[in-house]
């Protein structure tokens, strides 16, 4: 086989195929960085479903729905990210009464496991963990909770977050 027959078989000379292949790999890498974000779970706020050390990947496009786990920029600490679950979306009204979560005046029935072992009930003047007045979620905003409800820094403390602060929706964990 000679070089002329190899280049005609693929339609391009070998150097051009190499350049196009390299450009394709670089474009694929850039596209992956634009579409996905990786994160290592560093605390127990999402246990039992996500444990410290788990690696998660979030899709940067789309709008999260109730129940989705999202990676969000911390509203209080620049450069830090939090892993939380969307409990309420725009238009919902969320309230906590004696450790019970109500969404749109109905007791929340979550489809995922949550952990709550602390039996103390904190008054609203101390913390929003167990009691919180009704909050209506504004347009393009979300109310986030940790699955470990007793030990999670979430929207009960910092309020609803905007869509712009959400990095992406978790689609894979290992």
Q: What distance separates the N and C termini? A: 47 Å
Query: What is the CATH superfamily of the largest domain?
Result: Umud Fragment, subunit A
Top CATH class of the largest domain: Mainly Beta
SSE class: alpha+beta
CATH topology of the largest domain: Umud Fragment, subunit A
Return the string of H and E elements. HHEEEEEEEEEHEE
How many domains is the backbone divided into? Answer: 2
The total count of helices amounts to: 3
The biggest sheet, with number of strands, parallel, antiparallel or mixed sense and barrel status, is: 7 strands, antiparallel
If you had to describe this structure to a student in words, what would you say it looks like?
The chain is built from three helices and eleven strands; from the N terminus they run ααβββββββββαββ. The model has no long low-confidence stretch (mean pLDDT 88). The chain is elongated and about 75 Å long. It is an alpha+beta fold. It folds into two domains: 3-35, no CATH class; 41-173, Umud Fragment, subunit A (Ribbon), CATH 2.10.109.10. A hairpin with a 2-residue loop joins strand 6 (100-103) and strand 7 (106-107). Strands 1-2-11-3-4-9-10 form a seven-stranded antiparallel beta sheet.
Brief sketch in words of this structure:
The protein has helices at 3-10, 14-35, 155-158; strands at 36-40, 55-59, 69-73, 81-89, 93-97, 100-103, 106-107, 132-136, 141-145, 161-162, 166-173.
């Amino acid at each position: 086989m000679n070089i002329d027959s190899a280049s005609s078989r693929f339609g391009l000379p070998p150097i051009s195929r190499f350049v196009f292949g390299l450009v394709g790999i670089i474009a694929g890498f850039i596209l992956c960085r634009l579409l996905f974000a990786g994160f290592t779970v560093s605390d127990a706020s999402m246990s039992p479903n996500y444990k410290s050390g788990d690696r998660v990947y979030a899709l940067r496009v789309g709008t999260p729905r109730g129940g989705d786990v999202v990676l969000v920029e911390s509203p209080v600490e620049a450069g830090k990210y939090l892993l939380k679950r969307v409990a309420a979306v725009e238009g919902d009204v969320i309230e906590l009464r004696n450790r019970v979560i109500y969404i749109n005046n109905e007791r929340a029935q979550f489809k995922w496991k949550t952990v709550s072992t602390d039996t103390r009930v904190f008054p609203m003047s101390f913390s929003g963990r167990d009691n919180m007045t009704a909050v209506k979620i504004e347009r393009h905003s979300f109310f986030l909770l940790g699955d470990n409800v007793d030990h999670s820094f979430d929207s009960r403390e910092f309020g609803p977050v905007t869509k712009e602060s959400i990095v992406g929706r978790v689609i894979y964990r290992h």
